[in-house]
Specification:
two-stranded antiparallel sheet, 76% helix, 3% strand, 2 strands, 17 helices, globular, single chain, mainly alpha
């Protein structure tokens, strides 16, 4: 049976008689309670909580990028043109992902603040409103994506030989955007409430399902031999379309489970009858817009820059397009831990702000950024050393492998500073400070990366594009560290107004 939570007291905390004994709670919940209850936290406890939230978030992030890696690796066995068709539209799919993420974050940050302040009823009311708001938004995106899918490959300058597959792949991706939106929303809500484990577990399950579905949908019926025994493996032989459908099927199953858990089993956010409404209120919408709109604009402009990068790469040939796509996907395995730690940073900073604990907020900000830089620094070293093996798993084409390895080894040097920008951005999002970081990202990418890429590509080819990316990521990390150090994100008037009295 679902446990009914009592109403909070005047300070937003649960009455003592209703609190579970610490021994009966999960370790993470105990530490999160220290934030909400205004109790002091040692450095060791802060580090422990950061790790306990970061590890599941890292697994969740890695599982999402592993799905792309799986698609790329399986499709790569078909041939260079099939790989290039997915690579051609990959930046545009990331654009739509980013918009869905921004929409979900606009609401989930509000929930983090409410949970930190002990207002669980208010958190649940925002959740209900977010379901309707984000669903409408994602449906509009789906219609837009489906309507441009036939023309998009030509707009991006793709070769005629890959346009059909690229168009079909993007069409299937587009019509399943509402499903993807629900994954982002439900996962974000659970993480902001302090539950990192369920989204992480379901992310792993989604990867497994993706492999299974792709195995049967991408390849045709074929024979195999195991221990001298002959088997016939059925297959649809759909190629690129099968990769898109396999991923969509896995996402649909996981979205259903996530929503079920969020609405029926989440201790803090599960639905209570006659409590709240799915109708989006003006105040909630304004706050979501204030948080999410700069992020959305940022994703549009950044992905626009990535699309322009694709246009710069496209004239370099099919091999360059495929290698660029593979390198981007492979590098994602390196920087996704940073995004996992950023998710943890958003939760920790958001709840600390909701609880009115400025010093603790700053402490979590510094801990998460340093942790991200250390982990991604190690990942960069591993990526440099094992670049041939990483790219080799994705394609048997030697020309693509050589270009991909070159790109990864250039990018490896930028990983620590890339981590600084990723995790610091998560800190700023938790503080609902998104406008200035958005502008910083835009300036860095458009003024540094694209300028250098356009200058270097004609002479250095794909190498020049990745040198430009490496330089830009180092510059971006530096300016984000400067902003984090100055602390202006914490002194924001809109945020200061939500602090409660205690500040430990």
């Amino acid at each position: 049976m679902k446990r009914n939570l009592p109403e909070t007291d005047t300070n937003g905390a649960l009455p003592e008689q209703f609190r579970e004994h610490p021994a009966a709670q999960k370790k993470t919940d105990v530490l999160l309670d220290l934030i909400r209850d205004g109790r002091p936290m040692t450095l060791r406890q802060q580090l422990r909580l950061t790790v306990e939230l970061s590890v599941p978030a890292i697994i969740a992030q890695l599982s999402s990028i592993i799905m792309q890696y799986i698609d790329a690796a399986m499709v790569g066995r078909i041939g260079a043109e099939a790989s290039a068709s997915i690579g051609l539209v990959s930046t545009t799919t990331w654009l739509f992902w980013g918009l869905c993420t921004a929409a979900a974050t606009g609401f989930s940050v509000q929930v983090a603040h409410k949970v930190g302040a002990g207002d669980l009823k208010g958190a649940r009311m925002i959740l209900l409103q977010s379901l309707a708001g984000t669903l409408v938004f994602s449906l509009l995106l789906a219609i837009l994506g489906a309507s441009i899918s036939s023309s998009l490959p030509a707009w991006l300058g793709g070769d005629v030989s890959i346009r059909r597959d690229a168009s079909i792949y993007f069409f299937i991706f587009s019509i399943f955007l509402p499903i993807l939106q629900m994954i982002f929303l439900a996962g974000g809500m659970l993480r902001c409430s302090g539950n990192m484990r369920i989204p992480s577990l379901l992310g792993v399950i989604m990867c497994v399902l993706d492999v299974v579905f792709n195995f049967f949908l991408i390849f045709p019926t074929r024979g195999c031999s195991i221990a001298g025994m002959q088997f016939t493996i059925p297959g649809a032989g759909l190629g690129v379309s099968g990769a898109a459908l396999g991923t969509a099927a896995a996402e649909t199953i996981v979205a259903g489970v996530l929503l079920w858990y969020l609405l029926t089993r989440s201790e803090k956010l599960s639905y209570r009858s006659r409590e709240g409404s799915f109708r989006l209120k003006a105040d909630t919408f304004r706050k979501a817009l204030r948080i999410g709109f700069p992020m959305g604009i940022e994703h549009v402009v950044i992905c626009g820059a990535q699309i322009l990068t694709t246009v710069i790469v496209a004239p370099l040939g099919v091999f360059a397009i495929a290698a660029n796509s593979f390198a981007i996907t492979a590098e994602s395995l390196c920087y996704m831990p940073g995004y996992g730690i950023a998710d943890a940073a958003t939760t920790l900073v958001g709840q600390s702000i909701g609880a009115g604990r400025k010093k603790l907020t700053r402490g979590f900000a510094h801990i998460t950024v340093l942790m991200g830089m250390a982990i991604m620094g190690v990942m960069g070293i591993l990526m440099y050393l094992f670049a041939p093996q990483i790219i080799g798993m994705m394609t048997p084409v030697e020309e693509i492998r050589l270009l991909g390895v070159m790109a990864l080894r250039i990018e490896a040097f930028a990983e620590p500073m890339f981590a600084a920008s990723i995790v610091a951005y998560g800190v700023f999002v938790g503080a609902a400070d998104t406008l200035v970081p958005c502008l910083m990202n835009l300036f860095s990418i458009w003024a540094v990366r694209l300028t250098l890429a356009a200058w270097l590509a004609p002479t250095l080819g794909l190498q020049g594009v990745w040198i430009a990316m490496c330089v830009e990521l180092c510059f971006r990390g530096l300016i984000f560290l400067v902003r984090l150090k100055r602390g202006r994100w914490l002194k924001h008037n809109r945020i200061a107004s939500c602090y409660r009295k205690h500040d430990a």
